[in-house]
């Protein structure tokens, strides 16, 4: 755990396996509990990430993959700024079922720790907010994000600060830069869930192929 002991503030951070996480989310998504908690906690991850993304993604019709879309919080932010062509994927069927029907062009139940069933160079951009965290998606997903994104496409993501080094995200990001797989545009510490004293690294990278 991180030095902030965030597990006592956010119980899901104590979980260890994908099965435990999925079960937790299935309960959390019931009766809109998840969305209510996000509001109460002042979860700013989706807003901060989209605010960063929109500075560089001027074409509002690009096809975007929202990886780990949850209840559609990133999709709602994208829509505010005129983006209207995005797909979503999440491990929790319960969360996916809470998303407004007209928000995403396509929704799929997907385990992002496994290969994504999408052709190479399919998307113009990938968003991944709140998914790189305890017991969730591991660094190798970044390889898949690059694979499914077009040359010069954008990948915008958050990584919980507590697992950034523990899970090896620092090394994976460095490796991808060193191997010329992508180029850093922005990388900084975001507020994320300030009310719980939980921060995240927010990155925006351009794919190179």
Describe this structure in words.
With 209 residues, this protein is α/β, with parallel strands linked by helices. It has one domain (6-207): 3-Layer(aba) Sandwich (Rossmann fold), CATH 3.40.50.150. Helices cover 28% and strands 27% of the residues. It has helices at residues 18-28, 33-40, 45-53, 73-80, 93-96, 141-148, 169-178; strands at residues 64-67, 86-90, 106-109, 123-132, 149-160, 182-193, 198-207. Strands 3-2-1-4-5-7-6 form a seven-stranded mixed beta sheet, with helices on both faces. Strand 4 (123-132), helix 6 (141-148) and strand 5 (149-160) form a beta-alpha-beta unit. Helix 3 packs across helix 4. Residues 1-9 have low confidence and may be disordered.
Q: What is the helix/strand order?
A: HHHEHEHEEHEHEE
Biggest β-sheet strands, sense, barrel = 7 strands, mixed
Portion in beta strands? 25-35%
- Total strands: 7
Q: Please bin the fraction of helical residues.
A: 25-40%
Q: Residue ranges: pLDDT <50 for 5 or more in a row?
A: 1-9
| Shape call | globular
How many whole angstroms does the radius of gyration measure?
16 Å
Classification by helices and strands: alpha/beta
């Amino acid at each position: 755990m991180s030095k902030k002991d965030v597990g006592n503030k956010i119980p899901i951070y104590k979980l260890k396996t994908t099965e435990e996480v999925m079960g937790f989310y299935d309960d959390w998504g019931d009766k809109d509990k998840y969305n209510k908690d996000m509001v109460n906690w002042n979860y700013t991850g989706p807003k901060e990430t989209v605010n960063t993304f929109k500075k560089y993604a001027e074409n509002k019709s690009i096809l975007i993959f929202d990886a780990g879309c949850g209840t559609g919080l990133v999709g709602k932010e994208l829509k505010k700024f005129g983006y209207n062509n995005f797909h979503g994927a999440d491990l929790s069927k319960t969360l996916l079922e809470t998303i407004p029907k007209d928000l995403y062009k396509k929704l799929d139940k997907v385990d992002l720790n496994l290969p994504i069933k999408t052709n190479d160079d399919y998307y113009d951009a990938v968003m991944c907010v709140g998914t790189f965290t305890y017991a969730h998606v591991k660094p190798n997903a970044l390889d898949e994000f690059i694979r499914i994104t077009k040359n010069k496409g954008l990948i915008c993501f958050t990584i919980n600060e507590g697992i950034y080094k523990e899970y090896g995200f620092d090394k994976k990001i460095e490796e991808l830069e060193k191997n010329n797989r992508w180029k850093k545009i922005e990388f900084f510490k975001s507020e994320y869930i300030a009310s719980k004293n939980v921060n995240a690294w927010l990155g925006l990278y351009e794919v190179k192929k």
